[in-house]
From TrEMBL:
Residues 26-201 form the DUF642 domain. Residues 1-22 form the signal peptide. This is DUF642 domain-containing protein. Residues 121-133 have a biased composition (Basic and acidic residues). It comes from Streptomyces silvensis.
Length: 208
């Protein structure tokens, strides 16, 4: 009887010490595979749209199909739709613990639309000629000021995905992460940074 009681107490203690998310991923829909987008297409999402796990906090964003993203079945999210957009996700984490946010980014791959020789229509401009500095974005994590990133990949019709990471310490309340486009929108091409493969995991050691 004592042995049974001891085992039950140990199990209860373990449950109390383990975050609710321990059995599954800490972040939901990091590959942006939901909702699925038909091959060769994109879906524009606004603050009223359903993006499982995420909230479109402002502006609008474009969800690219897996064949356009070209990263092992993942879909990708362009943080600039017709306007600069922002997405966020609230996580349940252990207060005081260090975590690492990882993701991949790439410059916009919009090739533009055919136009007459000599025409100058900004709606048809290609994003492939835009400098990466025009496609910056901020990442906000608990306990740190927003950090600005610029897609480091080379331009091209196939995304040049590059890994990025950011470490942080969870606070007492729900931890929220945000990706916010800072892309230059002086033309109507609305070129913006793409992200995918977003993940959060415990990180041993001090926060960088």
């Amino acid at each position: 009887m004592k042995r049974t009681f001891g085992a039950a107490l140990l199990a209860t203690t373990t449950l109390l010490m383990t975050p609710a998310t321990a059995a599954g991923p800490l972040l939901v829909n990091g590959d942006f595979t939901s909702p699925p987008v038909s091959a060769g297409q994109y879906q524009r999402l606004t603050t009223d749209s359903d993006l499982p796990g995420w909230t479109v906090a402002s502006g609008d964003v474009d969800l690219y199909s897996a064949d356009l993203a070209r990263l092992d079945g993942a879909q990708s999210l362009n943080l600039t739709g017709s306007h600069n957009g922002a997405i966020s996700q609230s996580l349940s984490l252990l207060a005081g613990r260090s975590y690492e946010l990882t993701w991949h980014d790439a410059p916009d791959t919009w090739p533009g639309s055919p136009q007459d020789p000599g025409a100058s229509d900004p709606e048809k401009e290609s994003c492939l000629t835009k400098p990466n500095d025009d496609q910056a974005y901020n990442v906000a994590v608990p306990g740190r000021r927003p950090v600005t990133f610029t897609p480091a990949g080379s331009g091209g019709q196939s995304p040049d995905w590059q890994p990025k990471s950011l470490r942080f310490t969870a606070g007492e309340d729900d931890s929220v992460i945000r990706f916010v486009s800072q892309a230059a929108t002086q033309s109507l091409s609305h070129c913006g940074p793409q992200i995918t493969r977003v993940n959060v995991r415990p990180a041993p050691g001090p926060t960088a």
